[in-house]
Structures are given as structure tokens and as C-alpha cells.
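#random but structural
TW: two for the price of one
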Amino acid sequence: MKGAYVFSSDPRVFEAFAELLLEAGGSRGNDVAQYIDAQGLGTTVFSHQGADDPDVVEPPNEYQGRRPPVPLPQLSCCLVECRWEHVFIEWMRRLAESLRAPLWILDSDGTLWDLVSAIDGAVRL
């Protein structure tokens, strides 16, 4: 499955994303939420406590856009699985509107994107 880590200074990043998926008609478990649209395009979000996860602890390979104000392990994080970059980016827009807080995306190439750069760029899930 393709995916990315999503970081925010808002500790509700997972809860806010899970709520968006539920409002769209998705389902939720304890630490996971999922939505599959009418075309069968699915998005799954997992709560993530990444304090010892090497993908989160190690600095990104590259930065695109504005860097976060603190190291990644100090931000709240969730893991998103989605095969389609355009679907992923649309959910990120909705999440940013809901949280009203900056988001950063760590893609499968190890590039850390701020949301504005991710919308205009080539995030690789």
C-alpha cells in the first residue's frame, strides 16, 4: 500500500482526520479510520505514536517548502494509506481547513513537504 506520514503541531491530527472520514460515510475503529468513495478509491488513517519509529525520528532526505518549527518527533503524527496522490491531497486540504494548523507530509521518498508545496508538487505515496 502507498502512504505517507502527516504531521501537525495540533495534537488532534488523527482525531480530526478520522472525523472527516466518518462525516464522509467512512468507518472507525480504536486507532484507525477508513473511507472508500463511490469509485472504490480508499483512504485509511492510523493513529501513530512514532517516538521510536526510524521514519519519524530520522531527519527527512529533502525538504520542499517551509520546514516545521520543531523536529518531527515533537509533532503529532498519523499514517495515511492511499494509492492515489490526488485523493490524498484533497483529504489534506480538508484536514488543514478542519485543524486550522499547518501540516507537513513525509512521503515515501523521504521528502518532507509543507501542504502548499505538496499541492503544487509531486508527492510520492
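TW: number two ↓
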Amino acid sequence: MNQLFDETYNSYRTIWYGYYEQIGQPDLIKDIKQMIEQDQEKSEAEQAICTSWVFYCKATQGDALQEQVRASIMIRFFEHHYNVHCNMSDFEFVTQFDAIESWKNELEALLNNNIIREE
């Protein structure tokens, strides 16, 4: 994944990355964790109050309104705690919610416990 943008506004830093293939791709959690660790060094140097990451999926999907939806993974580090949120299409919600939710919970737990999952 390549960094798309990096902005800091009023001590709130946001970094955007593109593009991952799919949530289940091998090493995605490990890759995200490595990027976050590298980015956190700069956030600490800049004394950012909060750092957020947005990781965009390469593919888009059509929804019930025939609009294109791009899934994304959003991570927020604030007050020594990570929160993870996954945006998905309505189709993904209906067909893959449990798997995505499980993956999201695993990533959040690993970030908060500072553990790298071995593939």
C-alpha cells in the first residue's frame, strides 16, 4: 500500500493509504500494524493528540442504489487506545458481516495488545 495523504490539523493527524485487495488477504493485519508503528513515531514527534488512519480497498462494489462503494478500514489512536472501524457495502454487510467483524476485532485487539499475528 502507498501513502496517499498525510495531514495534521490542530494536533489531529490523519494518514490515508491505498489500496488493499480484500480484508482476508495474507499479511494485511501485519502490514497495517507495521505502517501504524512507523507513523506513530512521527505522530509522537509532532505531539499529535490523535492519529487516524484510513486504508482504502482497491475494488468497489455496487449497492442497492446502484452507487459504487469502496470499503475502507479506519483506525484511530487516542488516549493510548486504538479503535477500528470497517466501512463496507450493503452486499458485504449482508454476506460477510461476521467475517469482517471478526477480522476487525482481531486487528483492534492486536493493536491494543501490541502483538503481531504470525501467519
